Hints:
Layout: E1 19-23, H1 30-43, E2 48-52, H2 59-68, H3 76-88, H4 91-99, E3 104-108, H5 111-118, H6 128-133, E4 143-148, H7 151-156, H8 168-188, E5 193-197, H9 202-223
Parallel strand pairs: 1-3, 1-4, 2-3, 4-5
Helix pairs in contact: 1-9, 2-3, 3-5, 5-8
Domain Thymidylate kinase-like: 22-209
Enzyme class: transferase
EC number: 2.7.4.9
Amino acid sequence: xxxxxxxxxxxxxxxxxxxxxxxxxxxxxxxxxxxxxxxxxxxxxxxxxxxxxxxxxxxxxxxxxxxxxxxxxxxxxxxxxxxxxxxxxxxxxxxxxxxxxxxxxxxxxxxxxxxxxxxxxxxxxxxxxxxxxxxxxxxxxxxxxxxxxxxxxxxxxxxxxxxxxxxxxxxxxxxxxxxxxxxxxxxxxxxxxxxxxxxxxxxxxxxxxxxxxxxxxxxxxxxxxxxxxxxxxxxxx
Length: 237
Ligand code: NYM
Ligand code: MG
């Protein structure tokens, strides 16, 4: 018998991971739910990796952080492009996690936040297409879980922090933008949205999210579709 030659590369995973994005206005509970979700998936024996945007740990992320904390001023378009660049710089690792490692990604905010927040600024309110353009072609989420909460309720949760955008009128505009983006994705038919009432208790929200995510993971595993390209037709390249 010929002995098997040990492979130098890790075995290819049985299927790619699912790319799940949690979205919503500030103080909707995304960050809490993202970490509960990771624990739940790991408990089920599924590989799960947390990601978040903005990722403030990179050079680009540091510029974003300074801007959000009002330590610097930037043109609205310039900072929008930085948020997008912050996703593009993470895209190779994101793909590797999904495809080579076969791990699921739970991502706290992504491109929809980018568009919803920037296009809620007066200077960009008529430039939705421009706001979307720089994120076209990024790895596309397999599901968007939108934690929906009225601005009044979100505000009651210990109040907003002191960062830029954490103001009542801005948050109201952002919520409307999110619903416009949801309609656009629904017409397009590629990225499914799941709306969860985030005014419920942490446990109630968690139960709904777990169910959505388990179904999405099963779908990704059984359909064997490649990772999609955000807001773009073809899936190659
Ligand atoms: N934000 C987030 C944007 O304006 N554009 C983006 O592309 C992303 C990912 O950053 N108010 C805004 C939304 C938030 C702020 O995010 C900081 P977080 O999740 O609070 O750290
Ligand atoms: Mg925040």
